[in-house]
Backbone:
């Protein structure tokens, strides 16, 4: 059983060495580490080359590609039976691959594995990252839609599953949530409660740079699921209301009240009979009365 680890990177010379070292230190050694560089202008390439490790395969591209395309390039170049995604600022525990191998061997019907995360430095978040005290196997589709499962880049997927559900959608900037949704709707998943990845928080985290295009990506994914009849019309509208509500919340935090009012209004119109829609209507009215026009 061979694993292909796909890491995309850009200007992570100060962080990627620890990432690579955590892969080399795995107690299961049948793997290849494919690093796709989006045209780094720092010493990233020098750092990668310094390892002199035959299992590392480095590819450099001109800068400016979508993360969905870069990850797909890594998958297309990979040869393993199972594909792992590892960001260039994260670190694996030494038993990550051996744990994935054990799960696949114990549960041959599983094609998609994700697991818990440790943050460094530790941070306070709203409740547990994943609200599960035990590992489990089964469908994660409803939990993903309910935000009980967050689409972090800590998953492992079999190659045959990629052949079934497809690669990252390259129309999307990131495509990660979209891939999770397709996997959740078509595959049997396994959640491992053990923390097998350390996610280092720093000023350059992509996830910290809120980009409304990510919400546009999610809407495209929802529309795709609706066309495939994997979600009902009501579920689609409710999820659309949730996405618009998140946009409004961000604008509220940024004190951009007219924009917040606009998105609360869109949230209400998407699902006017839902609790979320009614809350958005109240917020929209409150902002209107405050003169946010």
Residues:
């Amino acid at each position: 059983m061979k694993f292909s680890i796909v890491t995309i990177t850009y200007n992570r010379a100060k962080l990627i060495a620890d990432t690579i070292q955590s892969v080399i230190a795995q107690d299961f050694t049948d793997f290849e580490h494919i690093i796709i560089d989006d045209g780094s202008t720092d010493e990233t390439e020098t750092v990668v080359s310094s390892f002199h490790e035959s299992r590392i395969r480095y590819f450099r591209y001109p800068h400016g590609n979508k993360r969905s395309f870069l990850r797909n390039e890594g998958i297309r170049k990979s040869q393993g039976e199972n594909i792992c995604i590892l960001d260039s600022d994260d670190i694996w525990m030494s038993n990550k691959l051996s744990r994935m191998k054990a799960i696949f061997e114990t549960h041959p019907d599983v094609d998609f594995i994700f697991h818990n995360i440790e943050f460094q430095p530790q941070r306070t978040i709203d409740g547990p990252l994943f609200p599960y005290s035990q590992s489990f196997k089964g469908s994660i589709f409803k939990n993903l839609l309910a935000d009980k499962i967050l689409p972090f880049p800590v998953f492992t997927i079999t190659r045959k599953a990629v052949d079934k559900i497809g690669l990252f959608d390259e129309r999307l900037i990131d495509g990660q949530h979209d891939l999770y949704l397709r996997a959740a709707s078509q595959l049997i998943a396994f959640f491992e409660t053990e923390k097998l990845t350390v996610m280092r928080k720093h000023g350059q985290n992509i996830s910290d740079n809120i980009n409304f295009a990510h919400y546009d990506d999610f809407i495209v994914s929802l529309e795709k699921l609706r066309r495939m009849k994997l979600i009902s019309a009501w579920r689609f509208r409710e999820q659309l209301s949730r996405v618009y509500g998140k946009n409004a919340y961000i604008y509220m935090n940024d004190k951009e009240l007219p924009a917040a009012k606009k998105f609360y209004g869109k949230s209400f119109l998407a699902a006017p009979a839902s609790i979320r829609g009614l809350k958005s209507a109240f917020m929209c009215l409150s902002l209107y009365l405050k003169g946010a026009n």
The chain has two domains: 3-208, 232-289. The chain has eleven helices and nine strands. The domain at 3-208 is CATH 3.90.550.10 (Spore Coat Polysaccharide Biosynthesis Protein SpsA; Chain A).
